[in-house]
Amino acid sequence: MDVSVPRPAYRRILLKLSGEALMGEDSYGINRATVERIVAEVKDVMVLGVQVAIVIGGGNIFRGVAPAAAGMDRATADYIGMLATVMNALALQDAMHRVGLPSRVQSALNIEQVAEPYIRGKAMRYLEEGKVVIFAAGTGNPFFTTDTAAALRGMEMNVDVVLKATKVDGVYTDDPMTHPDAMRYQRLTFDEAIIRNLRVMDATALTLCRDQKLPVKVFSIFKPGALKRVVMGEDEGTLVEC
Ligand SMILES: Nc1ncnc2c1ncn2[C@@H]1O[C@H](COP(=O)(O)OP(=O)(O)OP(=O)(O)O)[C@@H](O)[C@H]1O
Ligand SMILES: O=c1ccn([C@@H]2O[C@H](COP(=O)(O)O)[C@@H](O)[C@H]2O)c(=O)[nH]1
Protein backbone atom coordinates (compact mmCIF):
# COMPACT_ATOMS: atom_id res chain seq x y z
CA MET A 1 0.00 0.00 0.00
CA ASP A 2 1.41 3.41 -0.99
CA VAL A 3 1.09 5.70 2.04
CA SER A 4 3.15 8.57 0.60
CA VAL A 5 1.55 11.99 1.03
CA PRO A 6 1.08 13.90 -2.25
CA ARG A 7 3.62 16.71 -2.49
CA PRO A 8 3.18 20.10 -4.15
CA ALA A 9 4.33 20.25 -7.76
CA TYR A 10 6.07 23.59 -7.15
CA ARG A 11 8.48 24.90 -4.52
CA ARG A 12 8.04 28.60 -5.27
CA ILE A 13 5.22 30.26 -7.23
CA LEU A 14 4.41 33.69 -8.58
CA LEU A 15 0.68 34.23 -8.31
CA LYS A 16 -0.67 36.92 -10.63
CA LEU A 17 -3.96 38.05 -9.17
CA SER A 18 -6.21 39.99 -11.47
CA GLY A 19 -7.41 43.21 -9.87
CA GLU A 20 -10.89 42.41 -11.13
CA ALA A 21 -10.81 39.19 -9.14
CA LEU A 22 -10.91 41.31 -5.96
CA MET A 23 -14.26 42.86 -6.98
CA GLY A 24 -16.19 39.63 -6.40
CA GLU A 25 -19.76 40.31 -7.50
CA ASP A 26 -19.30 44.08 -7.23
CA SER A 27 -18.82 46.25 -10.30
CA TYR A 28 -15.88 48.20 -8.89
CA GLY A 29 -13.31 48.25 -6.09
CA ILE A 30 -12.41 45.73 -3.42
CA ASN A 31 -14.92 43.24 -2.04
CA ARG A 32 -13.88 42.31 1.48
CA ALA A 33 -15.37 38.81 1.54
CA THR A 34 -13.73 38.02 -1.78
CA VAL A 35 -10.33 39.20 -0.58
CA GLU A 36 -10.73 37.09 2.56
CA ARG A 37 -11.58 34.02 0.49
CA ILE A 38 -8.55 34.52 -1.77
CA VAL A 39 -6.30 34.96 1.26
CA ALA A 40 -7.65 31.71 2.73
CA GLU A 41 -6.75 29.95 -0.54
CA VAL A 42 -3.22 31.41 -0.41
CA LYS A 43 -2.90 30.22 3.20
CA ASP A 44 -3.91 26.71 2.10
CA VAL A 45 -0.89 26.51 -0.20
CA MET A 46 1.49 28.22 2.24
CA VAL A 47 0.85 25.47 4.79
CA LEU A 48 2.08 22.98 2.20
CA GLY A 49 5.48 24.70 2.41
CA VAL A 50 5.13 26.48 -0.94
CA GLN A 51 6.76 29.93 -1.17
CA VAL A 52 4.32 32.50 -2.56
CA ALA A 53 5.06 35.78 -4.32
CA ILE A 54 2.11 37.78 -5.63
CA VAL A 55 1.76 40.42 -8.32
CA ILE A 56 -1.56 42.18 -8.01
CA GLY A 57 -3.40 43.89 -10.87
CA GLY A 58 -5.40 47.10 -10.75
CA GLY A 59 -8.24 46.60 -13.23
CA ASN A 60 -10.85 46.77 -10.45
CA ILE A 61 -9.88 50.41 -9.82
CA PHE A 62 -8.13 51.89 -12.85
CA ARG A 63 -6.69 50.83 -16.18
CA GLY A 64 -4.54 53.15 -18.29
CA VAL A 65 -6.29 52.04 -21.46
CA ALA A 66 -9.86 52.12 -20.06
CA PRO A 67 -12.56 54.61 -21.14
CA ALA A 68 -12.09 56.42 -17.80
CA ALA A 69 -8.59 57.31 -18.97
CA ALA A 70 -9.71 58.53 -22.40
CA GLY A 71 -8.22 61.91 -23.24
CA MET A 72 -5.60 61.63 -20.51
CA ASP A 73 -1.89 61.56 -21.16
CA ARG A 74 -1.22 57.81 -21.41
CA ALA A 75 1.79 57.78 -19.08
CA THR A 76 -0.17 59.72 -16.43
CA ALA A 77 -3.07 57.28 -16.74
CA ASP A 78 -0.65 54.38 -16.37
CA TYR A 79 0.85 55.86 -13.19
CA ILE A 80 -2.69 56.10 -11.80
CA GLY A 81 -3.15 52.44 -12.76
CA MET A 82 0.04 51.49 -10.93
CA LEU A 83 -1.10 53.38 -7.84
CA ALA A 84 -4.34 51.39 -8.00
CA THR A 85 -2.29 48.20 -7.67
CA VAL A 86 -0.67 49.63 -4.52
CA MET A 87 -4.14 50.04 -2.97
CA ASN A 88 -4.98 46.44 -3.83
CA ALA A 89 -1.67 45.24 -2.38
CA LEU A 90 -2.34 47.02 0.91
CA ALA A 91 -5.86 45.58 1.11
CA LEU A 92 -4.46 42.12 0.47
CA GLN A 93 -1.75 42.53 3.10
CA ASP A 94 -4.29 43.76 5.62
CA ALA A 95 -6.46 40.68 5.05
CA MET A 96 -3.38 38.43 5.37
CA HIS A 97 -2.42 40.09 8.63
CA ARG A 98 -5.90 39.44 10.03
CA VAL A 99 -5.51 35.67 9.52
CA GLY A 100 -1.92 35.58 10.79
CA LEU A 101 -0.29 35.17 7.39
CA PRO A 102 3.01 37.11 7.41
CA SER A 103 3.47 39.25 4.31
CA ARG A 104 5.43 42.18 2.93
CA VAL A 105 4.48 44.67 0.23
CA GLN A 106 7.25 45.87 -2.08
CA SER A 107 6.47 48.66 -4.53
CA ALA A 108 8.13 49.32 -7.87
CA LEU A 109 7.31 53.03 -7.39
CA ASN A 110 8.94 54.85 -4.47
CA ILE A 111 6.21 55.46 -1.93
CA GLU A 112 8.13 54.67 1.22
CA GLN A 113 5.61 55.90 3.78
CA VAL A 114 3.29 53.25 2.42
CA ALA A 115 5.39 50.32 1.23
CA GLU A 116 8.98 49.12 1.02
CA PRO A 117 10.75 49.67 -2.27
CA TYR A 118 11.34 46.65 -4.46
CA ILE A 119 14.67 45.07 -3.47
CA ARG A 120 15.27 41.70 -5.07
CA GLY A 121 17.53 40.23 -2.37
CA LYS A 122 15.16 41.25 0.40
CA ALA A 123 12.19 39.80 -1.42
CA MET A 124 14.03 36.49 -1.86
CA ARG A 125 14.86 36.42 1.83
CA TYR A 126 11.23 37.06 2.80
CA LEU A 127 10.16 34.14 0.61
CA GLU A 128 12.73 31.86 2.23
CA GLU A 129 11.42 32.97 5.65
CA GLY A 130 7.92 31.88 4.69
CA LYS A 131 6.48 35.34 4.17
CA VAL A 132 4.22 36.18 1.25
CA VAL A 133 5.73 38.96 -0.86
CA ILE A 134 3.20 41.18 -2.62
CA PHE A 135 4.68 43.14 -5.50
CA ALA A 136 2.85 46.42 -6.06
CA ALA A 137 3.00 49.08 -8.80
CA GLY A 138 3.65 46.61 -11.60
CA THR A 139 6.99 47.13 -13.29
CA GLY A 140 7.10 50.79 -12.20
CA ASN A 141 6.97 51.82 -15.87
CA PRO A 142 4.06 53.14 -17.91
CA PHE A 143 3.03 51.31 -21.11
CA PHE A 144 3.38 47.96 -19.36
CA THR A 145 0.91 45.73 -17.51
CA THR A 146 0.90 43.72 -14.33
CA ASP A 147 1.05 40.54 -16.45
CA THR A 148 4.46 41.71 -17.61
CA ALA A 149 5.36 42.53 -14.00
CA ALA A 150 4.36 38.97 -13.08
CA ALA A 151 6.68 37.55 -15.75
CA LEU A 152 9.50 39.87 -14.68
CA ARG A 153 9.22 39.30 -10.94
CA GLY A 154 8.69 35.59 -11.53
CA MET A 155 11.99 35.39 -13.38
CA GLU A 156 13.78 37.52 -10.78
CA MET A 157 12.45 35.37 -7.93
CA ASN A 158 13.44 32.14 -9.74
CA VAL A 159 9.93 30.76 -9.37
CA ASP A 160 8.93 27.40 -10.84
CA VAL A 161 5.76 28.72 -12.45
CA VAL A 162 3.63 31.84 -12.95
CA LEU A 163 0.05 31.15 -11.92
CA LYS A 164 -2.32 33.59 -13.56
CA ALA A 165 -5.45 33.67 -11.44
CA THR A 166 -8.22 35.29 -13.39
CA LYS A 167 -11.97 35.34 -14.08
CA VAL A 168 -11.87 32.54 -16.66
CA ASP A 169 -10.77 28.96 -16.05
CA GLY A 170 -8.06 28.78 -18.69
CA VAL A 171 -7.01 29.85 -22.15
CA TYR A 172 -9.69 29.52 -24.80
CA THR A 173 -9.68 29.55 -28.60
CA ASP A 174 -11.25 33.03 -28.25
CA ASP A 175 -12.35 35.29 -25.39
CA PRO A 176 -14.95 33.12 -23.59
CA MET A 177 -16.66 36.25 -22.21
CA THR A 178 -17.66 37.29 -25.72
CA HIS A 179 -17.50 33.89 -27.48
CA PRO A 180 -19.43 31.36 -25.37
CA ASP A 181 -18.69 28.64 -27.94
CA ALA A 182 -14.89 29.03 -27.49
CA MET A 183 -13.03 25.85 -26.48
CA ARG A 184 -10.57 25.63 -23.61
CA TYR A 185 -7.02 24.39 -24.13
CA GLN A 186 -5.57 21.99 -21.58
CA ARG A 187 -2.09 23.04 -22.67
CA LEU A 188 -0.53 25.07 -25.48
CA THR A 189 2.79 26.61 -26.38
CA PHE A 190 3.77 30.26 -25.96
CA ASP A 191 4.17 30.52 -29.73
CA GLU A 192 0.60 29.28 -30.29
CA ALA A 193 -0.76 31.77 -27.75
CA ILE A 194 1.17 34.63 -29.36
CA ILE A 195 0.46 33.72 -33.01
CA ARG A 196 -3.25 33.12 -32.34
CA ASN A 197 -3.42 36.37 -30.35
CA LEU A 198 -5.12 34.64 -27.41
CA ARG A 199 -5.29 37.71 -25.24
CA VAL A 200 -5.61 36.12 -21.83
CA MET A 201 -2.12 37.48 -21.11
CA ASP A 202 -0.33 40.23 -22.99
CA ALA A 203 2.25 39.35 -25.62
CA THR A 204 5.15 41.03 -23.78
CA ALA A 205 4.55 38.80 -20.75
CA LEU A 206 4.18 35.67 -22.89
CA THR A 207 7.39 36.48 -24.79
CA LEU A 208 9.37 37.02 -21.59
CA CYS A 209 8.15 33.73 -20.13
CA ARG A 210 8.84 31.90 -23.40
CA ASP A 211 12.40 33.24 -23.60
CA GLN A 212 13.15 32.24 -20.01
CA LYS A 213 11.24 28.94 -20.30
CA LEU A 214 9.03 29.91 -17.37
CA PRO A 215 5.72 28.02 -17.60
CA VAL A 216 2.42 29.83 -17.02
CA LYS A 217 -0.74 28.24 -15.68
CA VAL A 218 -4.00 30.12 -16.23
CA PHE A 219 -6.89 29.23 -13.92
CA SER A 220 -10.01 30.70 -12.33
CA ILE A 221 -9.64 32.29 -8.93
CA PHE A 222 -13.43 32.08 -8.58
CA LYS A 223 -13.35 28.27 -8.48
CA PRO A 224 -13.02 27.21 -4.83
CA GLY A 225 -9.84 25.21 -4.17
CA ALA A 226 -8.47 25.74 -7.70
CA LEU A 227 -5.23 27.35 -6.50
CA LYS A 228 -4.42 24.35 -4.30
CA ARG A 229 -5.29 21.91 -7.09
CA VAL A 230 -2.95 23.79 -9.44
CA VAL A 231 -0.16 23.76 -6.84
CA MET A 232 -0.67 20.02 -6.31
CA GLY A 233 -0.19 19.49 -10.04
CA GLU A 234 -3.79 18.41 -10.62
CA ASP A 235 -5.63 18.94 -13.90
CA GLU A 236 -6.91 22.51 -13.55
CA GLY A 237 -6.81 25.43 -15.99
CA THR A 238 -4.44 25.70 -18.96
CA LEU A 239 -0.68 25.22 -19.00
CA VAL A 240 1.26 27.47 -21.38
CA GLU A 241 4.84 26.31 -21.96
CA CYS A 242 7.59 26.11 -24.59
N1 LIG B 1 -8.31 33.46 -25.59
C1 LIG B 1 -8.69 33.80 -24.36
N2 LIG B 1 -8.81 32.85 -23.39
C2 LIG B 1 -9.17 33.20 -22.14
N3 LIG B 1 -9.46 34.47 -21.75
C3 LIG B 1 -9.36 35.44 -22.67
C4 LIG B 1 -8.97 35.16 -24.02
N4 LIG B 1 -8.94 36.34 -24.69
C5 LIG B 1 -9.29 37.30 -23.83
N5 LIG B 1 -9.56 36.78 -22.61
C6 LIG B 1 -9.97 37.57 -21.47
O1 LIG B 1 -8.80 37.84 -20.72
C7 LIG B 1 -9.23 38.20 -19.42
C8 LIG B 1 -8.08 37.98 -18.48
O2 LIG B 1 -7.92 39.17 -17.96
P1 LIG B 1 -7.69 39.59 -16.46
O3 LIG B 1 -8.92 40.13 -15.87
O4 LIG B 1 -6.94 38.54 -15.73
O5 LIG B 1 -6.84 40.79 -16.85
P2 LIG B 1 -5.68 41.50 -16.24
O6 LIG B 1 -5.54 42.71 -17.10
O7 LIG B 1 -4.51 40.58 -16.15
O8 LIG B 1 -6.18 41.82 -14.78
P3 LIG B 1 -6.79 43.13 -14.13
O9 LIG B 1 -8.20 42.81 -13.84
O10 LIG B 1 -6.01 43.30 -12.90
O11 LIG B 1 -6.59 44.26 -15.07
C9 LIG B 1 -10.43 37.36 -19.10
O12 LIG B 1 -11.38 38.12 -18.46
C10 LIG B 1 -10.92 36.90 -20.48
O13 LIG B 1 -12.24 37.33 -20.72
O1 LIG C 1 3.99 47.83 -15.11
C1 LIG C 1 2.88 48.37 -15.18
C2 LIG C 1 1.73 47.79 -14.62
C3 LIG C 1 0.52 48.45 -14.69
N1 LIG C 1 0.43 49.66 -15.31
C4 LIG C 1 -0.85 50.39 -15.33
O2 LIG C 1 -1.71 49.92 -14.29
C5 LIG C 1 -2.94 49.44 -14.85
C6 LIG C 1 -3.47 48.30 -14.04
O3 LIG C 1 -2.71 47.13 -14.34
P1 LIG C 1 -3.40 45.83 -14.99
O4 LIG C 1 -2.28 45.00 -15.49
O5 LIG C 1 -4.29 46.30 -16.11
O6 LIG C 1 -4.16 45.20 -13.90
C7 LIG C 1 -2.60 49.14 -16.30
O7 LIG C 1 -3.75 49.19 -17.13
C8 LIG C 1 -1.63 50.26 -16.61
O8 LIG C 1 -2.34 51.44 -16.83
C9 LIG C 1 1.56 50.22 -15.89
O9 LIG C 1 1.48 51.30 -16.47
N2 LIG C 1 2.75 49.56 -15.80
Automatic annotation (TrEMBL):
Q: Where in the cell is it found?
A: Cytoplasm
Residues bound to UMP are: G58, D78, T139, G140, N141, P142, F143, F144, T145, T146
Which transformation does this protein catalyse, written as a reaction? UMP + ATP = UDP + ADP
Please list the GO terms describing molecular function: ATP binding; UMP kinase activity
Say which domain of life the source belongs to: Bacteria
Q: Which residues form the Aspartate/glutamate/uridylate kinase domain?
A: 12-220
Documented EC number(s): 2.7.4.22
What is the primary gene name for this protein? pyrH
Stated name of the protein: Uridylate kinase
Presence of keyword Transferase = yes
Documented activity regulation: Inhibited by UTP.
GO BP annotations listed: 'de novo' CTP biosynthetic process; UDP biosynthetic process
Sorted keywords for this record are:
ATP-binding, Cytoplasm, Kinase, Nucleotide-binding, Pyrimidine biosynthesis, Transferase
The similarity comment for this entry is: Belongs to the UMP kinase family.
Q: Which GO terms describe its cellular component?
A: cytosol
Q: Which Gene3D superfamilies match?
A: Acetylglutamate kinase-like (3.40.1160.10)
State how it assembles.
Answer: Homohexamer.
Where along the chain is ATP bound?
Answer: K16, L17, S18, G19, G59, R63, T166, Y172, D175
Q: Does the keyword Nucleotide-binding apply?
A: yes
According to its UniProt record, this protein's enzyme class is: transferase
